[in-house]
Amino acid sequence: MERYQQLFKRLENNKEGAFVPFCHPRRPKPDAIVTDH
Q1: pTM for the complete prediction?
Q2: To which H or E segment does residue 6 belong?
Q3: Distance from C-alpha of 13 to C-alpha of 7, rounded to nearest angstrom
């Protein structure tokens, strides 16, 4: 349980940095997508 609490604390302290990779997964550059289409 302590490990989970620490993880949650880190998420609360770094919401942006922690959730960015999940909300914005690595994708090819938009320029590449535009050229493909």
Answers
A1: 0.29
A2: helix 2-13
A3: 10
Residue positions counted in the chain = 37
**Angle, helix 15-23 to helix 2-13, in steps of 10 degrees:** 90
Asked if residues 2 and 10 have their Cβ atoms less than 8 Å apart, the reply is no
Domain range holding 18?
Answer: 2-36
Under 8 Å CB-to-CB from 10, ≥6 apart: which residues?
18
DSSP 3-state assignment of 19? helix
In the chain, the number of structural domains is 1
pLDDT at 2: 83
Q: For 6-34, what is each residue's pLDDT tens digit?
A: 777 776 666 555 455 554 556 656 665 56
